[in-house]
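Most newcomers find our protein records easier to grasp once they have seen one. Nothing more is needed to start thinking about how sequence determines fold. Here is such a record, shown just as it appears in the course material:
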Amino acid sequence: MSTDDREIEVYRDPAYMPGDKVISNKNIKNDGTMAGKEICETVVRKGGVGYVRDIGVFLQQFYIYAVDFVDRASIVGMREREFALAAAFANPVHDWLARVRPPMVADTWYDDGLLRAFERVKDWGLVQGGSRNGEWIDIFTRAYDCAGTEVGEASADWKTLLHKPHGLARPGASFLISDSDYVEGLTEIDIQRPIPEEVQRRCTGRPLLFLGCRCDDQMLRTFARQIGKRSAEGHVAVMPGPLTRMEARFLDELGITWLDLAVAALSEMLTVPEG
């Protein structure tokens, strides 16, 4: 039995109580501010869960999700506090994207680092996913201009569209949490079309560049398929190996060229002074 197998067995022990230190079987960096293992430990030490039944790999492998019961407001508050830590960290990739101004950037993490990088420029907008929990409205996304004012829909006149499909974990915003949130917010089912029209238009006929985005999570692959089915050939993914079996299958399925390179190496190149 591998170490990971033993750890996963421990997670299914209902003996853990709030305040216990729980080790995650995933120790993967997210946006560089905190490892997934540390997020799991922090949440449990703060007593944010009832009792831990299972430490799952849901929510992109970084969150405790399978708990007996915890109210949604507590989860939202914890996530907002966790991602408030990211404000102190600069991200060279975000800064580079704000300089080159591509037609669209789909940011699959929950912090606002990309938005803060774009605050130095104009003529851009944001469309973000959000939970419909507690709301009787048929809206899966909301759009905002670069001043932060909510608008009816994303504009074709914006030079760059920032797409945050999972939402934003900051006060006053909304983000996806539960299974139902993800099914509604990322998957097109029958006449339900949560992918905004302007996102569809900007993806059509263009290849995708995957940076710092692993494809080892089913939810991420589902969303990438929704976007990728409208795009052109020639996708490239920058991620360090080895690939998981499902990652390799996914890259082959979409015809993605894989560059076995850590995003940190790219960040270092982007921070080298010109000349």
Residues 23 and 37 are 6 Å apart (CA to CA). The two ends are 53 Å apart (CA to CA). The first helix runs from residue 3 to 11. Residues 1-70 have pLDDT under 50 and may be disordered.
